[in-house]
Write a structure and sequence with these properties.
Two copies of one chain form a homodimer. Chain A is an alpha/beta fold and about 425 residues long. Chain A is built from 16 helices and 17 strands. Chain A has three domains: about 1-180, MoaB/Mog-like domain (Molybdenum Cofactor Biosythetic Enzyme, Chain A); about 185-260, Alpha-Beta Plaits (2-Layer Sandwich); about 270-420, Maf protein (Alpha-Beta Complex).
Chain lengths: ~425, ~425
């Protein structure tokens, strides 16, 4: 089945808010095995919305409209759809009761707000109108109900714009309704890779991508990582899994230890923290150009405190000498951005912290500070694991933010590889 | 002039990523005084993209396409537009040279990685093709160039999908180009506020917002900050400025020292680093729950090394005692998340670093670790300025990521306010 999503709201066209609903509903449709080919955003404008609905009717089975269900005259989604379908708007007593009790509760719960705010305006009753023949979907988090309208083999779903209202409504009432429409089962697996660029990773499996039908393989690049999503549809879960397994095995052979996870919800830092825990290792970070971003990412992992002992942000040479015992001669001879300094930072961090793993990052993030010999983007990362040291040199392209983000990913990956290869 | 935005990418339709580009470009169009009436998202599908471009041609003067410029066979934006315009794709030697040097740098940077990884694949040369007669726009942060194509009174702008490539390219090359198309002068001013929530900030100037016409006032909430963009259109800059000035003055009166900047490009960390420099102060950070994110944000500022001496990531109690000399009794009696511990962390950081300003953050970011007395979101921040100490208690709502981000903003704001009130 084909879905088309129409987001309604001038605030989206002005850029006042990010359309996270489109993303949320896209994920839901993919999970349901529906094909979403078009996402449309229009403002609170009747002519353009009318036209968008008309076009969607020609190419989709299910049309989801978000936003434009509020109480103001700007809100026209329901009214416009009623015109397209040539149906009347009629008063829904159930919605009327709910709006009344919503205002009653709001007024009694918030003594500080003026009662004035909770007076029900005439506009509010507009929200109790429904398209004749539609099903009203209760909104537990606001006054605008949602609607399901079935019309001549087409289905319209109208949802309120605020994500705090849309998401609970979708999960409680719309998802069960849509699931009944889908007879196939969809299973997806993720293969997450780091240490290989997007183009290279795709080239490595281009034969699989070109021959895909079921399962499908979708790549996407993410900040120094590449993720492949494999999706199979079948009559039941076992059948879907048996379609996925051979592809998964093939990717494992081709990407080998560049794969850091096959778990949708697992991040690179999750894997690093898990490896440290499994091997009963502890970690210390020493950061120059990344200035704490690496530590910040490790602490993304709830429970990182079990393995992460401490971190040093040593942006200045003085701090490198004082806190990590880097030899001033090393800094003078090779410079702060050098293999030698990175190595001494890691050794120093291991010594002062007593951690079994210490990782150090030093580089030129730009925009200034680069030279011909040491250009912006040059970063050295050293990892000491029980005295065994790996140092890598990286040359990242891009602005300060990107160089620093890539450095963090490379440092996490170096910890991961160091642990994996350590016997 | 009317703009239509076409976002291209199956990853958007599958919900793998959020379309933040649409939001960014919407803000840019609004700032330029262009009317954006339709945002369209289609997948990497030639037929649907072709159709979307054809439709956009009928209703917009400027059509911006994002994504689909990558090296893989999936990437078809340039190819499809060439078909719509009935133009050839030709090799662009300048782009070819840039791609070659990009890979050359990557290959020479990483000795440990197999050279295999950096071989230029045939796919990559696809990115050196341009639509005949188009202007190539250099990409300083990736291999995919952008393009400007003028055709029969219509303008097409093709931009790479990753925001880290799109945004710098837009600001450097596309914005100046678009500005020349606009005969009215648009002047925008920003008022950036921290320390007040979005709803409260809006309520404080709701009379101005309700009466706006020219200039307009648009609020944007951003991670613990609220930005108001004031935009005036006029025949010349002086006229526009004279429309903006009274509104600006009024906002300054109402928000007073909650305004940290009126400069579009200036971030909160920029302001903090500038204040430190101006007052000849130095900084040390001591972070528990934020785990380096605060240091990471300060080092966002190129040249922060002049004032940022060092940082300590002390997530564990042991590290707080060892590196910051926090009294173990304080931790036992009041807990790691307490006013007392925050204070001792700041004092300790000031002592061990010798910095004139030391800021410390300790809190419960969640999802675990909360209790009735100390719920998730409780964060203490202490700032020591030449021995003078401010401690604040914050209660943030939301998930781990949000609590940590809000803590960083609150810590930066506390440094700012401490310096401003210090005589």
């Amino acid at each position: 089945m084909t879905v088309e999503l129409i987001s309604v709201g001038t605030e989206l066209l002005l850029g006042n808010i990010i359309n996270t609903n489109a993303n949320y509903l896209a994920v839901q449709c993919a999970g349901l095995g529906f094909s979403l080919y078009h996402q449309i955003t229009v403002g609170d404008n009747e002519i353009r919305l009318y036209e968008a609905i008309k076009v969607a009717l020609q190419r989709a089975d299910i049309i989801i409209l978000t936003g434009g269900l509020g109480p103001t005259t700007d809100d026209i989604s329901k009214e416009t759809l009623a015109k397209v379908l040539d149906r009347e708007l009629i008063m829904d007593d159930h919605s009327k009761d709910r709006i009344m009790s919503y205002f009653h509760n709001a007024a009694s719960s918030d003594k500080e707000m003026s009662e004035e705010l909770y007076k029900i305006t005439d506009n509010n009753w507009k929200q109790a109108l429904k398209i004749n023949g539609s099903t009203v979907v209760d909104n537990d988090n606001g006054t605008a109900p949602g609607y399901i309208v079935e019309d001549d083999n087409k289905i319209f779903i109208l949802l309120p714009g605020p994500p705090s209202e849309l998401i609970p409504m979708f999960e409680k009432s719309i998802l069960p309704y849509l699931k009944k429409l889908q007879d196939k089962v969809f299973v997806t697996k993720m293969v997450k890779i780091c240490g290989i660029g997007e183009a290279k990773a795709e080239t490595m499996i281009i034969d699989l991508i070109n021959n895909q039908s079921n399962p499908t393989i979708a790549p996407y690049a993410k900040n120094g990582e590449v993720h492949f999503r494999i999706t199979a549809s079948a009559n039941n879960t076992d059948e879907a899994n048996s379609l996925i397994t051979p592809i998964l095995k093939e990717l494992e052979v081709r990407f080998a230890d560049n794969i850091y996870s096959e778990n949708e919800d697992e991040t690179l830092e999750d894997v690093v923290v898990k490896l440290l825990k499994d091997k009963k290792l502890t970690l210390c970070t020493a950061e120059s150009c990344t200035g704490g971003l690496l530590g910040g990412r490790i602490i993304n992992v709830a429970g990182a405190s079990d393995v992460y002992m401490e971190g040093y942000i040593t942006y200045s040479n003085k701090a490198k000498i004082k806190n990590l015992n880097v030899n001033p001669n090393t800094l003078n001879t090779y410079g702060a951005v050098s293999q030698e300094t990175a190595k001494e930072m890691a050794i120093g961090a291991a010594n002062v912290s007593g951690a079994s793993v210490a990782v150090a990052v030093t580089g030129i993030a730009g925009p200034g500070g680069g030279s011909k010999e040491k250009p912006v983007g040059l970063v050295y990362i050293a990892c000491s694991l029980m005295g065994h040291i790996n140092v890598i040199e990286c040359n990242f392209k891009g602005n300060r933010k990107r160089v620093r983000e890539r450095s963090v990913v490379a440092a996490l990956d170096l910890i991961r590889r160091s642990i994996l290869t350590y016997k």
